[in-house]
Amino acid sequence: MSSQDTTPGEKKHIVSMRINNNDRNAMQSMASRLCIRESELYRLAVSIMLKHLIKLNDLDLSGSDLLPLFIDFREELVQNLGLKKQQLFTIINNGNIHPDKFVGMADIELLLLPQHLLKQRLLMLNDVPTDQQQDINACLKSYFVIKYDLEKTTKVFDDVMKSEIRSSAPAISWDS
Asked: 143 vs 53, 58, 125, 130, 171, CA distance in Å?
């Protein structure tokens, strides 16, 4: 977000974070290549991540509604946030009153397993199509899609989000 994107009176906050040297060097290198300040690249990264994690902002989404998000960011969330199974159980099933959307602890554990253990666990489940050439995350996704009927719920959410984004997006004029 650049200074042009802020509205008058919008307060910015200074945030401090710790990152390792490799990540910092990569950010400096990218910022240099893009001819922008490093802080602008950090703001871009935060903005992109917030857009990807938008489902966590909607308190009406819980249980199986959140599985696509955690499948897509499974490794990153576990590695960078150090989530434990009880934490993830609480995040996913937080206040879930719909029994058909409840995600069991065994399935939540699948989200936390490293690749090689996940593959072994999925092979033990009979209803999971596991092909040697198929990506293990694709196998996990297909397992959850079948078990929780995710295609229907994901499509509804995506349609709602697209319409909200379209209605809140400013009109762009190329004639100025």
From this structure: 22, 24, 9, 10, 41
